[in-house]
Amino acid sequence: MEADIIFNSSAVKADMLNPAQLAYIGDAVYEIYIRNYLLSLGICKSSKLQQEAQLLVKAQTQSKALKIITPLLSEDENKIVLRGRNNKHKNKPQNATVEEYNNATGLEALIGYLYLSKQAEKIDEIINEILINLGKDKI
Fold first, then answer.
1. Is 124 designated active site?
2. Are 81 and 102 in contact (CB under 8 A)?
3. Which of 55, 74, 100, 109 could form a cystine bridge with 63, CB 3.0-4.6 A?
4. Which residue in the list 4, 15, 27, 124 is annotated as catalytic?
5. pLDDT digits (tens, 9 = 90+) for 99-112
């Protein structure tokens, strides 16, 4: 008896999604990368892990991160960021300026696009560049 396939990850095509959808998945992927990074530092207390993760995934930090990685991006990747940044938001951002929130959405849309188009090496490159350049004194 064969199991029914309920979900096929290859069925989701990055080119077919709008910027909000790309940012939705990109937000989750970005947070997983950040959490993996924090675990690699040997932090054991869950409260410390959560505190550090929040610092790295908040809109202000993601906005700084986008500025860091922009020179590494291709023309097509910059177009995805722009689409994410220009996406109209129904909610007013909390604890961030509109520009920071838009930049964060652009970064998340890019990460979502790269993830869905199976470009893990590019995500690794981007996340590494962000983590190298966002020292604690820069957050």
1. no
2. no
3. 100
4. 27
5. 999 999 999 999 99
